[in-house]
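Standup notes
- DV: blocked on the single-chain target, sequence here:
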Amino acid sequence: MAAGPAGSFWSRWYERFMRFHLRLAAACFLAGAVFVIALSQHSGSPSAQGACPGRPDDLIIGTGAEIGAGGVRHDVIKAWNDEQRKLKTKPLKATLVEISESSDEQRSELAAAAQSKRCAYDVLLLDVAYITEFARNGYLEKFELDPGKLGGLPERYFLRKSLETGRVDGEQFAVPFAADAPLLYRRTDAPAPPPQDTKRFLELAKTHGYAAQFDDYEGGTVNLLEAIFSAQSRKGSQDDVLFDDTGNVVLDQDGNGEKVMDALRAWREALFTAEDGTHTLRDESVLREESSLQAFRTGLVGYMRNWPFAFNRLAADPLMRDDDGSLKFEVLSFPGTGVLGGVDLAIAKDSPHKEEARELVYYLISEEVQERLFACAGYPPVVTALYERYESSGTARTCGELAADGGDGAARPAERDTEITGGQLARFAGEVRQAVDHARPRPKSAYYATFSQVFRSCLLPMATTTSGAAPDFRYFSGALRDALDGRLRSDDACHPPAEAAREIGH
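- DV (later): unblocked, structure below
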């Protein structure tokens, strides 16, 4: 039927009706979207409130204890917060949560928090030994470094070996924060001469005393590795007695077990005193970093193996200075091959504030902040340009000079008679860079903590007792391979059970 006037009317009415309702629906949708956005801005990030109930809406940094005096790290974070308040209407407040002085305990707490998925931390300061574990277990966000923010390629901005500590399976998961490698501290107010090499040092240590960290913790593992690595370098050996080029354990091959025993015996002699035919372990031999520092500070020993943090602590101590203000100690290269240490920054996978965390990381690795942390708290910088500047000028800006510049409050000048001079800082930086360049990394494994536990359980007695039985290196090597694969044997990792011993011909 043809459409008449009535049909045209109803057709026009229907079109107008539909257009009205479409506009109404669009207006309602828009109003709803604006409401949701406003609500999310008012109540904070939905992920922080929903996925992480009860969590404070702060930028939380999980870290170990402050290594220097004066709380300089807290000052640096305060400076960040002050700057953010100037730049943003509702900035997140960055908060440091200090866990423990022990890297073992730090790792346990941070791993437990990641496993529980309770969003406890946004930024982690991790010992470099545990980066692989956290990355492979999915606890860390990948961190692709932006050359634009660094002012150049990451490989040029950072110390090379420090940058490599944050790479796992070809991808960057962590960013260097503080470099670390062992140094030898020598008291200059005692007749403890500078050693020329490892052999000479071990002889001198018997006479003048040596504070080392052979206690049952990660530091004990590091000291054992250094004793073994140093014996290899002293003999000019290119073959590793612990691992091959692919990281496989080779302790049970080519007499490597006996080479390890020879290395530990040599260091053990330096840790014992001999009187009337009796060998006694020095009290200052089985220590940790802090107790080693006190043994050296009080003059119990002439030498100390320790990390760079000790320099700032000792130099700021009036007891470690002569009447003319000169230091009563000097810092030397470690007499052997050191183990690479350090602390890296990483973003937690379950952080609800990843973008803000990334901004904070770039701030903490900036040249300005790194300079302040070094001069005022003793954190060795990871920025290559700082070392190059110190080397070329022969000096560095002191903490007092940085404070006088009217900076961000992160520098706290020391007392005039204990402030580290620019020349002292520059010389110290040179020793640190050389130590980092020559240090060896620990094995990269998602189960490094298990490996470390098994490794020192069998070898510490060889360095700290005269009665400890050497491990069965065939069986011990198997236990280490299991540990690197995440399997911790329930029995003795050092010696096979009697039944197994008979089966393999012991």
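- Follow-up: The longest strand covers residues 341-347.
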